[in-house]
Amino acid sequence: MGVEHFIFTKDNMISHELATVHFLSSQTGGPLHFYPGYQYERYLYLNRSNSEHLYYTVYKSLAKSFAYDINYTCRVSNGMNIVSFYTPTGSKEARDVSLGCMDPSHSLAVIF
Predict the structure, then answer these.
(1) What is the pTM of this model?
(2) What are the angstrom distances between the C-alpha of 41 and each of 13, 35, 50, 96?
(3) Pairwise pLDDT comparison (75 vs 44), residue with the higher score
């Protein structure tokens, strides 16, 4: 399961709860979209480019393909040792890596 957040605030201050919410989306592989100072009327009528940006962000989020429940095993030849994996959710020090969700814009890195 991947959790993707769209967060809108009326004031320009960043809430301290944003870190708590981002933890959920980062651990499941989903992105966090933050729109500070969002006012519906301003985005709809006065600033057309920002409302189009929001529209296309939501559209791309709904239309892109995802892989769910990923189990990744990296096997290497004798004499090589896997140090760590770098995934969208952070680094892991294991031979087998499990991810909740991944889209084509994410990548994996393996350090030998």
Answers:
(1) 0.67
(2) 19, 14, 12, 49
(3) 75
